[in-house]
Every structure is written in structure tokens, then in C-alpha cells.
């Protein structure tokens, strides 16, 4: 077989090698496929906090701007910003996204009311709230305080039964803002730092109860005068921070968590536990597993946590039970992988009998210490954990990236070697030149190909920065931080309009008119 034939075989083998491993993975573990399958303008879209949009591709919607322009990664990212927008008297009702420079405009409630403002325009994509969502945004929910002012209430749903809160009708809580788990950056100092949506004060308190670390209070805007993101979790409160809502905020009600049913802080004396269904667990008191969390829920004791694992259909092999509750009311963490086992006095770890664990444990006595915050004492550690988010999206393993990358590098090495041999056979003098010059003089890119790298994907399409948990959120679920684009709010010619949000001054920037057509 001649040299060219050998090169062809090498290329064929290399293509099979680099593709076969990735092709065996389910689509959900291959974010590049979901991104490629989604055009720049999706046929419809629902944001992560539940706001529905109807899209109009290759269509511009002029005037009636509520905010912008600013830079985002994609049209879905623009729609998510719309859902998070804190307006003055109303929220966001639509968007326009320009592909060429990724500029995003937010629209007010008068957007698209006249046809002369809507026209076909390549490179521009528009979206308006679904009619039902638009009506809800205008009408809001019942603004009556659902409970008597300063009355004590208790959640009765199964997952949060026994959690008590006190209602403060017509009041807001300044400061103590909580970074949403989905977006740890909070987009602070912008009108986009809100995220959660609730249809009642009770639901807002339930959202608060799901957060990690422990959420202490919540404020709720039933009229949606500030926008779709109308529920704000709080890390704490103080008497001087209970305020009357500023003008333009509409009706606001607050609730503070005042009582939590005590959980069992004593670790079982027995080192084994068998559930009703026959699942047997080995118990390790004062330990925690840094494996992957599937989900979290509230239980009163370790036995209830193990029962939940045994009943799970998500491959649960172990649990971590946090008796301190400082890392969240949902203190039982179901896990499907094992990792380094750490010492942690207020935690207990249990694993299905027969499951392999690392041979050694990591003691944190020299690297772990209590850290005082507005929410109390939380665990601080140099050991990383695993992220998650409000939707219980499991962190994807990075092992699937390594296979194609290593295979790809090996295949490229074979190809370069084959070409080198072929040229050497054709021209010995040319081979001598190649021998003097480094064949790899142009450095290869190390790491995953860009289209397989989650950090390069549009933020609001589900990409996550593959970092682990901060030590202070030891059991918590935390997605990677969405980077705030430095161009988003910084331009040379801008007006600054200050307004108050829960007593905190926020800069709201509007771009000056630059003579752009249709704007």
C-alpha cells in the first residue's frame, strides 16, 4: 500500500476514534449538541424563572424601549434579562436582539402596539411576552396581605413542614440581598439582580426555604410593579431595615423565618441502618462525602434522610445529613457518587453497604474554621464540593471531555507523522529542512475544543463555569458564575439615572441617542 493510502487509513481511524466516545454519550451530557440545534432565534422560549415569550425572527420592533442597549451572549440571554429587569412602575414586556454585536434592548408595555414599528429586518430578532404572561404582568396578583400583620404562620407542605415565619404587611427589607443559586454574581449594581418569581407570599417563603445557605427572610411584590422577578430572598434582617416600599415599587409584603422545628443532632449509636425496604447503610458520624449531590430535602433525622435515598430513583448511593441547618433548611443531601470523606462535626454521612469509597479521609482541623456571617456560622473549607441549581440540574462530569481531546491529540500526532514520512520519501532534501524546523512550531491548543467547552456557551442556554463549591457552601448547590459582560453597562456616552431599590442606590444607565436608524 502506498503512503497516501496509509494516510487515508490513518485519517479514517482518527475520525472514528475521536467521534466514537462522544457519540456514546446521551444528548443531555453533550451541551454542544443542544446549542447547535438551537438557532439564534428559537421558535419560543421560557426563561429559567418561568416567563414565556413568543419570538419573531428576522424582525425589528422599534421605539418603546424600557432599557438598553447592553451586551449579552444570545437572544435567550436577552430574554432572561427581561425576566429579571427591575423597572420603575412596570417590568419588561419584550426584547430586540441584534446578532452582529449581540446588543439587547428591553421593551416596555407599549411595545408592538402599532404595525409601523414592526418590520422585517435581517440580523434582528424580537420577542414579546406570551399574551397570558403580558396580561399577568399588567394585572399582577392579589395585592391584599394574605395574613394579619405581624402574625405567625407555619408552612404545612411535606418538604417544609414546621417552618414558621412572621408576616410584615406593606413592608420591605432593605439590604441583606441573597445571590440566587443559579447566578451567584447577582448582577449587582444593575437592574437585573432579582431572579425568583412567586405567585404568593407563601410561595416566596417556600423559595426562600430552598436556598443554600440558610435564607432568613423574603420580600414579595404581588403587583409586579418591579417586574417578573418579584420575590427576593434575604440573608437576614434588622429592625432599622424594615421600610415602607419606595415610590414605584408598588405593594410589598415581607416575611421573616422565625422558627424551625429542631432536628435530631445526635448521631445514631448503631453503625448500620436498614430501611423498611431492606436497603442497608453504613453510618459515619462527624463525616461528610464531597461527592455529587442529586437533590436536597428537609428531614428531622439521619434515618429519614437514608429512607429518602432508598426510595429515590436517581441512583442514590449515600446521604449527608446537616444537623446545624446553617447551610439551608433542606438539610438532607442525596448523593450518587463518592469522593474524599471529610471530618465535619455537625454532619453525618451514610452510604449503601458495599459501595466503594476512597481509602483515606481528609481531616479539616487545620484548614476549616467557623466563619461568622449575617446568616450565622457556616462551614469554611479549602475542599471543593459540587454545584447544582434550583432546577436540580446535576453537575456534569468533565471526564467526557478528556476522551475526545486526548484521542484528538493522538490522531493529530499520527497525521503529522504520516505527512512527514510521505514528504521525506518524496524529497530527502525537503525532509532535511523539516528536520531542522520544529514540526510543531505552532503550539496546539490544549484543553477541550471550544465547541465542547461549557464555559464558551451562551450563559442563559445552560452553560456552567465548571468550578466547584466555595467552602462556605459546603453542602450547597451552586452553579458556575455567569460572567457579567464588561461591555454590558459601560459606554463612553451614557446618562446616569439613580433610583432606589429597597433602600439601596442603584445606577440605571441609559445610552444616549447616537443617531441610529429606528432607535
Automatic annotation (TrEMBL):
Regions of compositional bias (Low complexity) in chain numbering: 359-377
Polar residues composition-biased segments: 378-389
Transmembrane segments: 399-422
CDD domains (UniProt xref): TM_EGFR-like (cd12087)
Span list, region Disordered: 359-396, 449-469
Ranges in a coiled coil: none
Superkingdom classification of source: Eukaryota
InterPro entries, per database record: Pan_app (IPR003609)
Domain Apple: 69-107, 197-223, 291-335
Native source species: Delitschia confertaspora ATCC 74209
Name this polypeptide is given: Apple domain-containing protein
Signal peptide as annotated in the record: 1-22
Keywords recorded for this protein, A-Z: Membrane, Signal, Transmembrane, Transmembrane helix
Amino acid at each position: 500500500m502506498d503512503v497516501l493510502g496509509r494516510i487515508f487509513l490513518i485519517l479514517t481511524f482518527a475520525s472514528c476514534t475521536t467521534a466514537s466516545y462522544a457519540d456514546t454519550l446521551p444528548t443531555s451530557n453533550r451541551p454542544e449538541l443542544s446549542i447547535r440545534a438551537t438557532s439564534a432565534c428559537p421558535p419560543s422560549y421560557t426563561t429559567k424563572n418561568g416567563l414565556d415569550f413568543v419570538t419573531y425572527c428576522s424582525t425589528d420592533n422599534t421605539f418603546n424601549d424600557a432599557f438598553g442597549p447592553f451586551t449579552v451572549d444570545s437572544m435567550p440571554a436577552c430574554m432572561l434579562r427581561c425576566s429579571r429587569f427591575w423597572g420603575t412602575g412596570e417590568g419588561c414586556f419584550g426584547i430586540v436582539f441584534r446578532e452582529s454585536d449581540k446588543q439587547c434592548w428591553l421593551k416596555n408595555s407599549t411595545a408592538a402596539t402599532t404595525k409601523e414599528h414592526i418590520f422585517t429586518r435581517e440580523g434582528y430578532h424580537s420577542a414579546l411576552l406570551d399574551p397570558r404572561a403580558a396580561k399577568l404582568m399588567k394585572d399582577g396578583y392579589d395585592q391584599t396581605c394574605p395574613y394579619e400583620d405581624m402574625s405567625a404562620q407555619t408552612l404545612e407542605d411535606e418538604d417544609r413542614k414546621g417552618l414558621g415565619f412572621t408576616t410584615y404587611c406593606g413592608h420591605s427589607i432593605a439590604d441583606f440581598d441573597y445571590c440566587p443559586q443559579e447566578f451567584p454574581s447577582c448582577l449587582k449594581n444593575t437592574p437585573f439582580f432579582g431572579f425568583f418569581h412567586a405567585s404568593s407570599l407563601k410561595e416566596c417563603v417556600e423559595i426562600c426555604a430552598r436556598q443554600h445557605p440558610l435564607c432568613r427572610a423574603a420580600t414579595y411584590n404581588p403587583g409586579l410593579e418591579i417586574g417578573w422577578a418579584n420575590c427576593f430572598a434575604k440573608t437576614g434582617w434588622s429592625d432599622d431595615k424594615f421600610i415602607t416600599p419606595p415610590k414605584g415599587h408598588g405593594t410589598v409584603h415581607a416575611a421573616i423565618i422565625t422558627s424551625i422545628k429542631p432536628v435530631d443532632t445526635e448521631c445514631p449509636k448503631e453503625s448500620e441502618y436498614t430501611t423498611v425496604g431492606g436497603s442497608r447503610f453504613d453510618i459515619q458520624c462527624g463525616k461528610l462525602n464531597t461527592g455529587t449531590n442529586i437533590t436536597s430535602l428537609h428531614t428531622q433525622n439521619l434515618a429519614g434522610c437514608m429512607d429518602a435515598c432508598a426510595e429515590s430513583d436517581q441512583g442514590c448511593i449515600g446521604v449527608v445529613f446537616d444537623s446545624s441547618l446553617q447551610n439551608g433548611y433542606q438539610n438532607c443531601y442525596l448523593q450518587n457518587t463518592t469522593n474524599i470523606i471529610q471530618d465535619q462535626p455537625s454532619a453525618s454521612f451514610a452510604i449503601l453497604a458495599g459501595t466503594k469509597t476512597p481509602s483515606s479521609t481528609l481531616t479539616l482541623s487545620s484548614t476549616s474554621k467557623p466563619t461568622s456571617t449575617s446568616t450565622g456560622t457556616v462551614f469554611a473549607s479549602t475542599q471543593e464540593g459540587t454545584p447544582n441549581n434550583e432546577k436540580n440540574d446535576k453537575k456534569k462530569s468533565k471526564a467526557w471531555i478528556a476522551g475526545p481531546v486526548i484521542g484528538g491529540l493522538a490522531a493529530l500526532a499520527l497525521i503529522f507523522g504520516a505527512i512527514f514520512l510521505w514528504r521525506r520519501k518524496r524529497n530527502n532534501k525537503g525532509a532535511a529542512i523539516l528536520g531542522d524546523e520544529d514540526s510543531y512550531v505552532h503550539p496546539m491548543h490544549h484543553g477541550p475544543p471550544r465547541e465542547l467547552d461549557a464555559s464558551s456557551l451562551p450563559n442563559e442556554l445552560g452553560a456552567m463555569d465548571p468550578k466547584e463549591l466555595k467552602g462556605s457552601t459546603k453542602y450547597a448547590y451552586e452553579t458556575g458564575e455567569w460572567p457579567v459582560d464588561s461591555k454590558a453597562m459601560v459606554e463612553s456616552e451614557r446618562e446616569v439615572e439613580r433610583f432606589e431599590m429597597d433602600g439601596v442606590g442603584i445606577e440605571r444607565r441609559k445610552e444616549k441617542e447616537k443617531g441610529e436608524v429606528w432607535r
